[in-house]
Amino acid sequence: MSIYKDMNFWFITGSQFLYGEETLRQVEENSKEIVKGLNKAGLFPAELIYKDTMKTAGGITQAVKEANADDTCAGVVVFMHTFSPSKMWINGLNLLQKPYLHFHTQFHASIPNEDIDMDYMNLHQSAHGDREHGFIGTRMRLARKIVVGHWESKEVQQKIGKWMRSAIGVAVSKSMKVMRFGDNMREVAVTEGDKVEAQMKLGWEVNTWPVGQLVKAMDKVSDAEVDALVAEYEKRYKIVTDDMEAVRYQAREQLGMQAMLEAEDCMAFTNTFQDLFGMMQLPGLATQDLMRQGYGYGGEGDWKTSAMTAIMKAMAEGMDGGTSFMEDYTYDLASGLTLGSHMLEVCPTVGADKAKVEVHHLGIGDREPPARLVFEGKKGPAILVSLIDMGGRLRLIVHDVNCVKPTKTMPNLPVARVMWQAEPSLEVGGECWLLAGGAHHTVLSYDCDAEMMRDWARMMDIEFVHISKDTDPVKFEQELLLADLVWKLK
Ligand code: MN
User: Fold this and answer.
1) Whether the predicted model's global pTM rises above the 0.85 cut
2) CA of 22 to the centre of ligand 1 (A)
3) What's the CA-to-centroid distance between 441 and ligand 1, angstroms?
């Protein structure tokens, strides 16, 4: 399964008939060379396709309609090689439903000082052509990404590549289906939310299936299927328990859940320890191995974090950092570190080494001791992401953190864990996170960064809040206050 092989991006060049045939032929040739060079550089997750050079309002409108109707088109990149009067673009852009990137580049990186003449000036006009285009984007209040620089620059290519991942995240979001086994944990506020609003804004279909139906699906799983999955566990993980019955039970749970997820085309799911009727163990290893495959998960009925996990995993497909459901658990205030974990469900893609399968008693949920993967997280920069419902709108909060190797051995902690230093410090980061209303559940990702999430939020038309090394709590509080006003007016 690779969404990046199935999807592509369109490159549309802007021009007009004013310059004559020879110039337009050169514009087209240069555009094709730019697209060829960009693809060849190998920094894009999906293919960029040169579509056409636009010379008329009718042509622009037609191209936009085609982009909208094409399910494989994940976004549109535009570049004004020459001047392209923007009133020509208004009707087309009014219809655009795909992610939109304005690429402010130029065919040549340098001015050919001795050779430059008026023909050159008329051909390489993006410096003013793209300004005309920028104006209309701003005037129409269009959500778009702007990337500036020469197309052969690695930084520029990386920036576009990252935006492509965010745009794929938009496509994934619009087809996201979440399977909820049971409801949210009783009395918890932050895992609640307006599912109608979430579907209107983000496209998510969030629905509930009875736990009894899952138990039936688990009963249908054959012993041979359980054997085969346990054999895969043995290859992938280090089994350090003698209680193979507990491990086999997790395999049965995994296969039962997967059968239901596949039948309903769901890429994310939730469950809650308060509703395990007919199940002997809270799914641990089962959930962890499903997350490894790209499924989203949220504990205690947290469907928002579950869907975000799946979307961010899709955005990060093919990268090697890792993305997981996460929870801020406990602090080492003395050293400014946070220990993140969950009862069981941390994705092994964020593990530093091969995960161990262990079986331990679980005090919560009143079931048999569940098998789970235990490991320590990777070192390196990462983000924590929380989507909250502010009542009338959604807010996406992103916090930059630096993951560290846990400073102490924790032989009695029977769960996977990740330790991090929050930016700009535990104290300021924590203060801002609480001010913003960030949840205890998050998505931890070493692959997605704040820019990718900002681009995604802009395309989804939801509020974005970022806590970074530069965050000042006084300014941050003012930003939240202003944002509250702006989003009430929107
Ligand atoms: Mn939790």
Assistant:
1) yes
2) 64
3) 6
pLDDT, averaged per 10 consecutive residues of the chain (490 residues), comes to: 89 95 96 98 98 98 98 98 97 98 98 93 95 98 97 98 98 98 96 97 98 98 98 98 98 98 98 96 98 98 98 97 98 97 97 97 91 98 98 97 90 96 98 98 98 98 98 98 93
Q: What is the pLDDT of residue 71?
A: 96
What pLDDT does residue 159 have?
98
Which among 265, 305, 276 has a CA at the least distance from the CA of 442?
305
Whole-number Å distance, alpha carbon 338 to ligand 1 midpoint, is: 15
pLDDT (0 to 100) of residue 490: 83
C-alpha 434 to ligand 1 mean position (Å)? 17
Ligand 1 center–CA 114 separation, angstroms? 67
Give the Å distance between the CA of 281 and the centre of ligand 1.
17
Which residues, 6+ apart, have CB-to-CB distance to 320 below 8 Å?
447
Phi, psi of 267 (to 5 degrees): -105, 5
Measured in Å, residue 347 CA sits from the centre of ligand 1 at 14
Give 472 Cα–ligand 1 centroid separation in angstroms: 29
Ligand 1 centroid, distance to 141 Cα (angstroms):
39
327 C-alpha vs ligand 1 centroid, how far in Å? Answer: 6
Q: What Cα–Cα distance (Å) separates residue 288 from each residue in 94, 123, 347, 349, 414?
A: 43, 55, 5, 9, 14
Q: Each residue of 392-430: pLDDT tens digit? A: 999 999 999 999 998 788 999 999 999 999 999 999 999
